[in-house]
Design goal:
The chain contains nine helices and ten strands. With about 260 residues, it is of the alpha+beta class. It has two domains: about 50 residues, no CATH class; about 170 residues, no CATH class. The two termini are about 45 Å apart. It comes from Roseateles albus.
């Protein structure tokens, strides 16, 4: 660091500049001198791509979908849950594809005929579980060290009726969400849909008013079922960073208590 600072024509040459140069985001231009003969820093092609990606993420953070997801995340954090957003989790769904109507559904299935089938044929006739990558908008668990008390929950955010109806048409997608959690909820602004339009196994939250200061109302609780997280989900959670409040209420309360303590 002394050698780095000693050769400085640039006014500072501190650790931040060193990190930027080492990452390849900026480059020193010793041939071109600026005011008073100082070296200048210029953005590299990698640095331009980095800024463009940051700008894209900032634009997305301002979208209606992400604003509602952030609001739901905050409510869950205030309730004491551990929350993740935009996870990619490998989940198991049903073998039957969406829109398929099997013989059993049409009343043409004969249970006695199974005894006439060879074991290989019978095994092939049983639908195999299908694996898919599920990306729940908001995934949370209780803040507990007891696995049986985790109660993982998925909240799917929908800000338009078209988006909600598209999701409801994908049975395999809904099966994957339910496989990952004990309870699954749809969250959308009031007026997008009625609770009766949502499958009974799913809970419904609606937002009244603006995202920032509107009221979240639970129209219907989700059907609860026991769920233990598979190892692959545990591994994904360990690699991801959970969401957090900008200011921890507990720490704020401790700070106010210490300020008022004059003893």
């Amino acid at each position: 660091m002394k050698i780095w600072a000693a050769g400085a024509c640039w006014p500072v040459r501190d650790g931040v500049e060193l990190d930027l140069v080492a990452a390849g985001w900026v480059a020193l231009t010793s041939a071109q001198t600026g005011h008073q003969g100082h070296e200048t820093l210029r953005l590299t092609e990698l640095g331009v791509h980095c800024l463009a990606e940051a700008r894209r993420l900032n634009r997305r953070a301002l979208s209606a979908h992400d604003a509602l997801a952030a609001r739901m995340t905050r409510e869950l954090l205030l309730a004491g849950r551990v929350v993740w957003r935009e996870l990619s989790l490998r989940a198991q769904g049903q073998g039957q594809g969406e829109g398929e109507a099997g013989a059993e559904a049409q009343g043409q299935h004969d249970p006695d005929a199974e005894f006439l089938l060879a074991p290989q044929t019978l095994a092939a006739a049983v639908p195999k579980p299908q694996w898919r990558v599920a990306r729940p908008d908001v995934f949370s668990v209780r803040n507990t060290s007891v696995e049986d008390y985790l109660q993982p929950v998925v909240h799917e955010i929908k800000v338009s009726r078209a988006d909600l109806l598209s999701d409801l048409r994908h049975a395999a997608k809904r099966d994957a969400y339910q496989w990952l959690c004990s309870e699954c909820y749809y969250v959308f602004p009031v007026g997008v849909a009625e609770a009766a339009e949502i499958p009974e196994a799913f809970g419904v939250w609606v937002l009244h008013g603006a995202v920032e200061d509107g009221r979240l109302e639970l129209l219907r609780p989700a059907r609860h079922k026991p769920c233990k997280l598979p190892f692959a989900v545990w591994l994904a959670l360990a690699k991801a960073t959970p969401a957090r409040l900008e200011e921890d209420p507990a720490q704020r309360q401790l700070a106010s208590s210490s300020e008022g303590d004059t003893t």
